[in-house]
Model the fold of this input.
Amino acid sequence: MQFRIPKIEGLAHAKQLKTLLLRKNLIKKIENLEENTQLEEIELYDNRIRHITNIDHLTNLVHLDLSFNRLKEMQNLETLVNLKKLYLSSNRIRKMEGLNTLINLEVLDVGDNKIRKIENIECLTTLKEFHAAKNKITVLEGLSTCVNLYLIAVQVNFIYKIEGLETLT
Done:
């Protein structure tokens, strides 16, 4: 028998918790983590989360994986300034946004969404990997300031034009 939890709870006493891995559950909402300010890694991969909420106090996060959920927007990420890895693949996201304060981000995965345009990543100068495969992108652009990129994965899109990659060595 496989047990899948519906809610994040019972962690208030774990104030020094660094890693929380709750993959493949039935969680609909990020909640009850107010006491867990030391968290550095959260994986809520393959749940039922619809909104990124209740994480603005988790400023020590360096790894956040919300892939395979039901997200439609990239929101409430602004305070996560120490984030290095952000995984949002296989959701329902239509627009890249809310990334302008994530200046330490090294890996961004927005693959398998409904994104039409690469945008709002000018400040991600430390970005090393950009994954945006299986979207609806038509022009490969907007990456000129991401001078540390060594991997751009944009397969299975509708790309007909490539622009602004001259600065990427």
In short: The radius of gyration is 16 Å. The chain has one domain: 1-169.
